[in-house]
Fold this protein.
Amino acid sequence: MKARFGAVLALLCAPATASAQVVSTLNPLYQSVKGYIVKSAEEMPAESYSFKPIGTVRSFGEIVGHLANENYLMCSTAKGEKNPRDGEDFEKTTDKAALVKALKDAIAYCDPLYGMPDSAFRGEAELFGMKMGKLAILGANITHNNEHYGNFVTYLRMKGLVPPSSQGSGM
């Protein structure tokens, strides 16, 4: 994991004119984590979507909704377009099927970005009140998804389930 983080950090700090294609290097990291978060959302039983390890954290379902929200936000910002789901808050959705669909739709919205050339991401954009390079936003999206996959691992284990990354599926 430290090697992955170091590689992402080095790529994001590299100038946009570097000869290596940053997006093509980020793509396998994105593919891996998107598979883990979607599979986690699918595998958690519907009755456990309201589960919170303690009362001060998000429920499993709220995290799924949060990931849908944030994937739309980050990817629309990197694309330089209006968030297509602006005004919707999937964290407030409680139905498992609706949440899994929202997450899959958000991921599908992001998918094309990770196959585009670096040149599609020239310039900066504002995200969370900070100006950053559009390539950095793609890295931030991967980092954010991984952060919450860590939550999923804990929640799944507490429910006696094996997280996707420990299932040996070779994602």
Observations:
- Confidence is low (pLDDT under 50) at residues 1-7.
